[in-house]
Amino acid sequence: MGECKSFCSLILVFLLVACASGEDPYRFFNWNVTYGDIYPLGVKQQGILINGQFPGPQIDSVTNDNLIISVFNSLDEPFLLSWNGIQQRRNSWQDGVYGTNCPIPPGKNFTYVLQVKDQIGSYFYFPSLGIHKAAGGYGGFQIASRSVIPVPFPPPAGDYTILAGDWYKQNHTDLKAILDGGSDLPFPDGLLINGRGSNGYTFNVDQGKTYRFRISNVGLTTSINFRIQGHKMLLVEVEGTHSLQNTYDSLDIHLGQSYSVLVTADQPAQEYYIVVSTRFTSQVLTTTSILHYSNSAGSVSGPPPGGPTTQIDWSLEQARSVRRNLTASGPRPNPQGSYHYGMINTTRTIRLANSAPIINGKQRYAVNGVSFIPADTPLKLADYFKISGIFSLGSVSDGPTGGGGYLQTSVMAADFRGYVEIVFENAEDTVQSWHIDGHSFFVVGMDGGQWSSANRLSYNLRDTISRSTVQVYPNSWTAIYMPLDNVGMWNVRSENWARQYLGQQFYLRVYSPANSWRDEYPIPTNALLCGRALGHSTRPQ
């Protein structure tokens, strides 16, 4: 009987999406989430596997596809998956963070119904609760252009996903206990490439052919630099935007960011190092994989090529060189440059300052003085069911307060179809990485020092990149323009997972008074209920 109910609920969800999206194709995924023994740094650990895999299965999709992802939680604790950079148009119900979704209980199933509406590019998914991300559970997520949309480079001979980032030998439960005890995480033990340590992964290429590498930083605490021995990289896409095709010897990739590069196998036939190293750390961690030519006569030799270590100006100049390709088509046939983001008047300026206060004797992190604490009920459900006492709008201000930190379930109100300027201000001596769910934004400026309105004169209002994750250098600022074109409850967070867990996040409630399907989909009939939302109905009234 339970299976019948679940199946019927699923059919209703399918019909809902079919009505909303017409004839766009469906892709179905059945995932079982389990614990399993992994040895990424040579030490046995309890990892989080999806269908027995670490990293998890890759999602390959095409613009506008409907993705039906059935997730069964075989762990002994609640679990959620979120989708870094997937915008969930009109559908924050599927975002998979605790502010929008009840966790999947142990032994239970939840089916995500996503549409990758008007998106292309390279992304990843990850487990969003606690410090699960430190145990794995992440995987690649790519969205190809529709066949009728021109792509600004020839089809590559192969397409490789690289999920790289820092790693700890301690289990996620131990790391969570460190944070809950009021301390920050220690320095990572190593770096992984696709779940493996040094030289644990090989990428095969044919001499003379060109390959696409999609690189994401899925780590917890550190920026990385990526390079391939003896080879140049042609940057072609950044988090769903076709980029100006600049050539780089190495690329800085900050927490949560994704880049696509083309690499031509134009060197003598042998093996070469693929290198990932930490950035802006006193101790430099390095790991390698192998680029193997199919007609190779020799193995990799010599030390891996070095890269930048603590140089901030070098990284800042590289970041400014990452720009959008104005003539290329995005998800739709119109050129990316046809949206003149710099000619639109902003409706509001929001300044967000990160800080590291000690609150009640414990290390916390804050945004404009507010250190986020989760409520007992997901904020999206509380908003929908009009449950009072869960959160209050305006509980985080539009600018730095200058005072000490305090704990609050912080939610900022925003109006649908607004166009905001957001300035991230970092007075700390560490690099910050910020992500905004449900949106893509234009990175109009970044520089050292204190931001002021005079800095607007230096903004790039013509061809900056648009993306969903951006870095802020130490004692520096980064400014973005963002259209508030997606109704919902959206997480704004640090991609440093310790800082996010200890409060450097809040939710942006983008609101439309219309209460119309044109602005936002209704609550899914299979939505899980928890906390004070228990007893409410997800069926249409």
UniProtKB/TrEMBL annotation:
Coiled coil: none annotated. It holds the Pfam family Cu-oxidase_3. It comes from the Eukaryota. Residues 1-22 form the signal peptide. Keywords: Glycoprotein, Signal. InterPro entries: Cu-oxidase-like_N, Cu-oxidase_2nd, Cu-oxidase_C, Cu-oxidase_fam, Cupredoxin, CuRO_1_AAO-like, CuRO_3_AO-like. One of its GO terms (molecular function) is oxidoreductase activity. Residues 32-146, 159-296, 376-513 form the Plastocyanin-like domain. Belongs to the multicopper oxidase family. This is L-ascorbate oxidase. It comes from Quercus lobata (Valley oak).
